[in-house]
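User: Teach me something about this protein's shape.
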Amino acid sequence: MPTAVSRRRLVAATAWSVPVILVGRPAAAASCSSAPTVTVVPTLGVSSSIQTKTVNGHTIGTFSYAVSNAGTTSIPAGTTYTIVFAVTKAPGNAGKNLEVSPRTIAGLGLSRTSPVSMNPDGPPKGEQTFSVTLTLTAAVAPGGTRTQVWDIDSETGVGATHLTMSAALAGYGSSQCSSTGAGGQTTETGQWGSSV
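Assistant: First, the predicted structure itself:
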């Protein structure tokens, strides 16, 4: 049986080793999977407007993507969406150029901010498809909406050249551990100049 003196030595040695381990190996940060989860309820929308440009007969308008908060907690800043634009031509139509130009919107950031020339025939006439990451640079409060707008200029009408936008949640901002609640959306698709 150990003596009282040897017990003290064991306790002292154990007590001495604990600070060394803590200093040498700091505790890992809590991961999102183990943290309390905050439920957010984003609703997404794709809308457009069209008109004819009197100078050259081009079809012009806007193509918009809206992130709205239908929940009771903010959608965190840093939340990202991947948006893909694709252009196709209707059968029997020639490939016509279309330009997609993003607007600068407060509270939103884009990975691609310059205008993009698109053409259903692809390079070298223009891109058939391109993607952009949209980031919420500020939280969206309950009842709030952030809308990114692109201006569109097409050599032809919406019936001859189809422009489609598809958006999908890439990830919530890291300021809180978030998950999508009932009624929330993580994807949305729309066609320019159409209610589809």
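Now, about its shape. Residues 4-31 have pLDDT under 50 and may be disordered. The chain is about 10% helix and 40% strand. If you'd like, I can walk through any region in more detail.
User: That's plenty for now, thanks!
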